[in-house]
User: What shape does this take?
Amino acid sequence: MKTAIAIRHVHFEDLGTLGPALQGAGYGVTYVDVDSGALAGLDPRAADLVIVLGGPVGVYQTDEYPFLLDETRLLETRIAADRPTLGICLGSQLMAAAMGAKVAPSGHSEIGFSRLAINPAGAESPLRHLADVDVLHWHGDTFAIPEGGRVLASTPLCAHQAFSRGPNILALQFHPEPGAADLERWFIGYAGDLAGARLDPRAFRKAAAVHCPPLQRAAAKMLSDWIAGLKP
Assistant: This one.
């Protein structure tokens, strides 16, 4: 069985519906929580796949959250070796920073379901499976596209929603992974975000019931397509 490590920042932001898709593709998944101290001991190149998940901190907050330094160093080494790496939200921002690109607050938050504007490069990538579904957005920071990267998608509020570098490096600012039931933990954990954005969790819950099932199916196809195209 191939090995996948999922780096997790908060317990309720896990692989969600991508977990079964990974298992179906032949991966055994191990979570590494950033508060466990295990990051510093990881071999950046060893796992067949590394997935860096989301979280509520900023890449630039290294004084407040020193684990970000270990995580960025791990990604610098892994990406330089072109080992398969997928980042989601904070994970995508960490990948961009590890590749030398700027990550900073966008000046506004983007929270809720909406469709991506997938450009021609994205239409030739696994993101094509997401063309007709609403994905989840939950972020306030944004990244520049690193050298060698190709932007794949955008939204009106965020010009850089995804980038890739070759077949093995994929960074997604949006969230393809939560199911409707998963989001119940988000509504509690990020209640402050919802209140700040004047979003009612009751309305969000109804939207999730509509949008999460097709997103789950499309995200599984996207992940399977990406995995099938990975190069040794």
Observations:
- The first strand starts at residue 2 and ends at 8.
- Residues 42 and 144 are 27 Å apart (CA to CA).
- The chain has one domain: 2-228.
- The chain has a mean pLDDT of 97.
